């Protein structure tokens, strides 16, 4: 079954409005030991759209090949869009959440 999340190249881009976005994905190194067709599960979100987040703040919990993982903010910002809902599966390179610069 193909993941229902959004691949890295789709969705709105705020560049036309002057804002910049940070697309957050699961660290590519996490996929290195997984099978080529493996999917991760987004278990839960710890933030909501519109929330301010700090760099390093844990945004979500996920699992890949029976390993619990956390998804952290790479930079401070505001949660603009949650692209993969809790309970959905996703593949490598999928945007999980988009952060807008403040």
Automatic annotation (TrEMBL):
InterPro entries attached to this UniProt entry:
Biotin_lipoyl, Single_hybrid_motif
> What residue spans carry the region label Disordered?
1-21
Which CDD domains does the annotation name?
lipoyl_domain
* Residues annotated as domain Lipoyl-binding: 40-99
The protein's matches in Pfam families, at most eight in alphabetical order, are given as:
Biotin_lipoyl
Query: What domain of life is recorded for the organism?
Result: Bacteria
Its protein name is Biotin attachment protein
């Amino acid at each position: 079954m193909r993941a229902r999340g959004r691949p890295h190249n789709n969705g709105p881009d705020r560049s036309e409005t002057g804002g910049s976005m940070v697309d957050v994905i699961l660290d590519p190194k996490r996929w290195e030991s997984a099978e080529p067709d493996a999917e991760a599960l987004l278990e839960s979100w710890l933030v909501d759209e519109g929330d301010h987040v700090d760099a390093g703040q844990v945004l979500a919990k996920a699992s890949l090949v029976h390993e619990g993982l956390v998804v952290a903010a790479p930079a401070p910002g505001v949660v603009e869009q949650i692209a993969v809902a809790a309970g959905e599966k996703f593949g490598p390179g999928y945007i999980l959440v988009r952060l807008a610069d403040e």
